């Protein structure tokens, strides 16, 4: 079974072909990703109209490359999976209309995948882990702690009440005059900085629910930066290190709460899983590895190339759904908003 996956919800145009592999894993036959970062960098964030146009310009050739790179023709693909949301609606529409057209012409099943569900299932593609597992999904647009109980069976244990973690990294980078996307830049600067120079707040620490709040942390950092202006390179490094250390503390504390709540809604997890672009952060990965070890859990995080947005995760989610007969028809809607996990009912 070979499934083509198409991803156009944000600023990566991506297409990949994946097949079921050994030990419950997936086998990535091709994985083409074109980042639009250069086109958006001057604006310090993703401009929806620029993103949509860029997707249109490259998507057909990228799909061609993914299919031929897998050693296949379109006629040999068994299903066409596409991220139908959530995301920037212009981009989502381009991917979805392309996928529908291909499905119609080739008479192959269409699988409309939730982009967040695809991030959530990536650990099964890479490591073949079983359900249920505890997921930290952290990207530029989302921050959620989720009990992944099965395909289509997700319970949200916590979410952010303001900024997403990746968004906070991006805003901090912008504030400090670093490049976009901010996460990698802040992490790089933090390497040489002093994480204890600034006593930044740890919002939500000790709260009963596994929710996040990051806007206060970002504001505290801005105030420190304004006090010091103009900033030396060492100041920027220290601010980045102090910020990253605060984020790590918050993540560890929120995860502790989520682990406890997980037991209530899903029993014992098979693993702690990180997904989304923020999972590329080394400091966060190290903290999660330690925490998982203390809880006697395996820590699974996708390799860097599969942390950010990509087509392979969409193709894999397509395989997972296709195996269960969960296919869609040509009326599948494009969705700007599309929650994938039910909020937990925990007293
Ligand atoms: P969505 O939220 O819809 O999944 P997205 O494009 O924001 O969309 P990703 O591509 O998964 O999601 O992640 C991008 C985000 O990850 C950006 O906010 C970026 O700053 C952040 N990020 C990437 N690398 C790092 C890093 N090393 N440390 C911290 N954050 C990072
Ligand atoms: Mg992205
Ligand atoms: Fe994403």
Automatic annotation (TrEMBL):
* Co-factor note (free text): Binds 1 Fe(2+) ion per subunit.
List the Pfam families.
Answer: TsaD
Gcp-like domain: which residues?
28-316
**What is this enzyme's class at the first EC digit?**
transferase
Q: Where does Fe cation bind?
A: 115, 119, 309
Q: Does the keyword Magnesium apply?
A: no
Q: Which residues bind substrate?
A: 137-141, 170, 183, 187, 281
Q: Which InterPro entries match?
A: ATPase_NBD, Gcp-like_dom, KAE1/TsaD, TsaD
Keywords assigned? Acyltransferase, Cytoplasm, Iron, Metal-binding, Transferase, tRNA processing
One molecular function GO term is:
tRNA N(6)-L-threonylcarbamoyladenine synthase activity
EC number(s) on file: 2.3.1.234
Which cofactors is this protein said to need? Answer: Fe(2+)
Give its localization. Answer: Cytoplasm
**KW Acyltransferase (keyword) present:** yes
Catalytic activity as recorded in UniProt? L-threonylcarbamoyladenylate + adenosine(37) in tRNA = N(6)-L-threonylcarbamoyladenosine(37) in tRNA + AMP + H(+)
Looking up HAMAP family in the UniProt record yields: TsaD
Protein task = Required for the formation of a threonylcarbamoyl group on adenosine at position 37 (t(6)A37) in tRNAs that read codons beginning with adenine. Is involved in the transfer of the threonylcarbamoyl moiety of threonylcarbamoyl-AMP (TC-AMP) to the N6 group of A37, together with TsaE and TsaB. TsaD likely plays a direct catalytic role in this reaction.
Similarity comment: Belongs to the KAE1 / TsaD family.
| Name the UniProt record assigns to this protein | tRNA N6-adenosine threonylcarbamoyltransferase
List the source organism: Methylobacterium goesingense
């Amino acid at each position: 079974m070979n499934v083509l996956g198409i991803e156009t919800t944000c600023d990566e145009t991506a297409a990949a072909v994946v097949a079921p592999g050994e030990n419950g894993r997936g086998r990535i036959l091709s994985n083409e990703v074109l980042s639009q970062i250069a086109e958006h960098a001057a604006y310090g964030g993703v401009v929806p109209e620029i993103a949509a146009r860029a997707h249109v310009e490259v998507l057909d050739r990228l799909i061609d490359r993914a299919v031929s790179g897998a050693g296949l023709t379109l006629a040999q693909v068994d299903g066409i999976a596409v991220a139908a949301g959530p995301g920037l609606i212009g981009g989502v529409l381009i991917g979805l209309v392309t996928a529908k057209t291909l499905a119609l012409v080739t008479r192959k099943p269409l699988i409309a995948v939730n982009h967040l569900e695809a991030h959530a299932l990536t650990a099964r593609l890479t490591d073949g882990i079983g359900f249920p597992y505890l997921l930290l999904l952290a990207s530029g647009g989302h921050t959620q702690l989720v009990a992944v109980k099965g395909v289509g069976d997700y319970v949200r244990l916590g979410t952010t009440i303001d900024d997403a973690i990746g968004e906070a990294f991006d805003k901090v980078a912008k504030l400090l005059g670093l490049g976009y996307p901010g996460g990698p830049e802040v992490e790089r600067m933090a390497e040489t900085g002093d994480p204890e120079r600034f006593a930044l707040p740890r919002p939500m620490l000790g709260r009963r629910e596994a929710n996040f709040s990051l806007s206060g942390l970002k504001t505290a950092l801005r105030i420190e930066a304004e006090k010091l202006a103009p900033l030396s390179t060492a100041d920027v490094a220290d601010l980045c290190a102090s910020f990253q250390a605060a984020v790590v503390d918050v993540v560890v504390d929120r995860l502790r709460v989520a682990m406890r709540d997980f037991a209530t809604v899903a029993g014992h997890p098979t693993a702690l899983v990180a997904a989304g672009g923020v999972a590329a952060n080394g400091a966060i990965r190290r903290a999660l590895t330690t925490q998982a070890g203390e809880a006697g859990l395996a820590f699974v995080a996708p390799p860097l190339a599969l942390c950010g947005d990509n087509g392979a995760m969409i193709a894999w989610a397509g395989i997972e759904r296709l195996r269960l007969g969960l296919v869609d028809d040509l009326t599948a809607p494009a969705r700007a908003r599309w929650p994938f996990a039910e909020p937990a009912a925990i007293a």
